[in-house]
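User: Predict Branched-chain amino acid ABC transporter permease's structure from this.
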Amino acid sequence: MRYQRIFVSALALVLVMLPAISTRAQGEEVPRGPTFAARALQALIDGVQFGVIIAITSVGLSLIFGTIHLINFAHGEFVTIGATFAFFLNVSAAGPGWHLIPAALAAVVFGALLGGAVERGIWRPLRARGTGLINMFIVTIGLSLLLRHVVLVLYGTRPASYAQYDIQSTIGLGPAGITPRDLTVTLLSVLVLLGIAVLLQKTRIGTAVRAVAANRDLAEASGIDVQRVVLFVWMLAGALAALGGVFFGLVEIVTWDMGFKLLLLMFAGIILGGLGSAYGAMVGSLVIGVVAQMSTLWFPVDLQYAWALLVLILVLLVRPQGILGRAERVG
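Assistant:
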């Protein structure tokens, strides 16, 4: 009986307070989150930013495949090395403590030298020996593992950020927003991609690159120094990978395996755009970045890369040569 009285008293107290609680709930405005249109615009902005960064890193990978038909599995490590080299110059206690801008420029130069060294020291001797593409592809896997673990030993497993441009307030773009850092990275990425397009279309070395990619034997017979063109492509690929690594580390975070995580999206971008086409790599990477970010509106963030790859499969079922690729006869 004692517990029944306690229960009845508590129930009566709740019934007495219920009108007041209801009145208070009706009088107060419940805070609302951003609308679907605002979230969609924000995801689109983030997707464009992500896509142009992927494009910078994947253009060099596409040019390498276009000139010597090699799938460079170690390209992701070039991205990581660029980001960690800039980190060493900018943040590390053992480094000189440079500002991020000169550190990024030095990382780009280092990436170009690394690409040239790998071409002269590994790939050119292997081609001179007549090594098959499958064997060279296996060598790229071994090189990837070697470089990744060298970075792991030197850099460590702890994620870190650059010293500058870390925490910033956003700039309003209607219902969405973007930080000055992310806006600058996006605009610089677009300018770099436009510069690559001008390089390929308006310069002699760009014309030579396109000629070698179209028909290596005919280009060599026409007097083009193919070895010099291939060396230039490797150095350009290394520089772009390093720059993309710095941008990716700036907007995300610097880790020892960041390039490896980005490698699958690079491959997806160049395959979607068309193998061997620099412009196809740009378009395909942009599509991959936008789809990956827009998918988070409906699905968990952990699945964003999966939906981007699903779009890749669907497009290839309709257009096997990719968006800007050319259909070729086999045999």
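Residues 1-31 have pLDDT under 50 and may be disordered.
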